[in-house]
Amino acid sequence: MEKNIDFECIEECSQCCIEREYYPSKEFGKIGVLILPEEKERMEKLAEKKGLKIKILPRIGTSKLKNSKPEKILAYQLMGTEKNGNTCPFLDTNGTDKSPHGGFPCKIYKERPLACSAYPLIESNPVTLDQKCKFCKEHGNTDQNINSEMESLLKIKEQMMPDESSIWRFATNVGEPEDEKIMKHGWILEDVS
To answer: Measuring CA to CA, which residue among 192, 188, 193, 155 is closest to residue 23?
Structure first.
């Protein structure tokens, strides 16, 4: 019988704030932290207040017709500070203070985006945790202490229910130098056939 335990960050880990992944494929480039439209201005103001330069790109948009560009943005993405797309601009990698678990602290932890609050939960039904998370790799799963993560994920999902029929993804053209030849930039109509 497998024992489930409470989720908590692994000592000295800040991996989820540093490493970005290609999604849905390398062609689209690396993605940033998902930012809902109502969070975008707040993130920009927090960056200005902290004296940080941030880059927010569109992530998912919708349109009624397939031959037009998105008319509505469902989500944006906060890009990393490194050329390859890694490292959240709100992660304090230069300070001497450490987070309670010993990793790099978040400069906006209490005001972080819903996507950060939901992590490592990536699906609510069935409950699915990100297997790239060091805690999830070591412990497999958790049956408690994910209520706030579940609440955040459900808020995101609620916002991501499009009325329009055409879904568009924004290709960031951000990634490792060896992938530059295959990455695209701009809106790409998602094939939902």
So the answer is: 188
User: pLDDT digit string (tens) for 23-72?
Assistant: 999 999 999 999 999 999 999 999 999 999 999 999 999 998 888 889 99
Considering its fold, how many domains does the chain have in total? 1
Q: How far is residue 48's CA from residue 7's CA, in Å, rounded to a whole number?
A: 32
Tell me how far apart the terminal alpha carbons of the chain are, to the nearest angstrom.
41
Residue 31 lies in a domain: yes
CA 29/CA 55 separation, integer angstroms: 15
Tokens of 56: 């927010």
For residue 56, tell me if it sits in a domain: yes
Angle among Cα 43, 45, 47 to the nearest 5 degrees reads 70
